[in-house]
Request: fold
Amino acid sequence: MPEFFSAPSPLASKPKLVVLGAGFSGLTFLKKLENRAYDVTLIASRNHFLFTPLLPSSTVGTVEFRSIIEPVRRALKGVRFYLSSARGLDAGQKVVRCETPGGQELFEIPYDLLVIAVGAKVNTFGIPGVVENALFLKTAEDARRIRRRTIECFEQASEPAVSPERRRQLLHFMVVGGGPTGVEFAAELHDFVMKEVKACYPSLIADVTITLVDAADHILSAFDKSLSDYTTRHFQREKIQVRTGIRTVKLEKDRAILNDGSEVSFGMVVWSTGLGPTIAVNNFNLPKDKSSRLLVDDLLKVQGQDSVYALGDCSCVIGKNYPATAQVAMQEGAYLGKALNDLARGKPVIPFRYRHHGMLAYVGEDAAIADLPEIKGKGRTTYFLWRSAYLTRLVSWKNKLLVIFDWLKTGLFGRDISRF
Reply:
């Protein structure tokens, strides 16, 4: 049994509030919380907040990685922060067990109230070879790997000794998963090909193929069917292959084996097929649904617990089917921040109610789709709405200005194709 060291004790005069995770739900919660009422400790596996809706743009250099991250120590004042990961929970003793990066140190944090907002990881569904051979798109590190591998494929394909067959294999980019992340990445990659590759690797353009594979019968299943159909037609016009009703059953180093018996060679595959539980949630002995999400009531309390809350992608409100989106996570975070403020003042707490404001997605060639309560928008006009909406959601003025500068820079000078 590993030995855990106790972290320095928080101030005894205030309730000890421990927050796990600094994503949309955790950060929104802490920004809404009035710290005067609680002694707050934040534990997260990275020391920055990442604006994931623009992560696909960073894979090809439309925006830069640092433009969409904000250090949590700068974004949150009056919060104790530990760069660590939760690995265990004793709800009876009210203690969270944590480890530092690489598992070098183990320590315990006591709490009076615990907020679990650790998000989720990409779901591989146990398919052989996915972990070893696919690239994911959940973190800035993932986006950097994709960016590096993309340039690598074009540089290798341009070498004189490469055979035509090997060239076509290197220049086949496969995206598994037809949700917003997979669609937006395919769109950004297509923009990169039609602008940067056409200008810098003109001899390769004819051999480039982008294929989007999804197990459902249509892509963007959370959107209105008319918008899903528009996106499919738009992709087909832009020569992006869309294959629906197809599942990957095995992934090897440079080929995918599909459930219809066919094999597809590729230079790079990006896996974006839904969400699965993190190590922390797997280890916590708390009630979960069949997808291993923590079950919470309409006050966002974990079922059977009086002092443990869960937010965002790692949780599921009993009897509801909220989408796993930043919008839901932010509303839950804002709600719980206000609820704990009211609790500290002795005020009654009302149940959480989600308000759906719609969804947006970029589909390439300066076109976007908008599935809003009153409007089903598509095309170039919607593209400006997509950019404006994302811009307003960025955490800081620094991020907003950097992203605007990145967009202007890309429009004027193109995307950087350096490999580093």
About this structure: The domain at 130-274 is CATH 3.50.50.100 (FAD/NAD(P)-binding domain). DSSP finds twelve helices and 25 strands in the chain. The two ends are 42 Å apart (CA to CA).
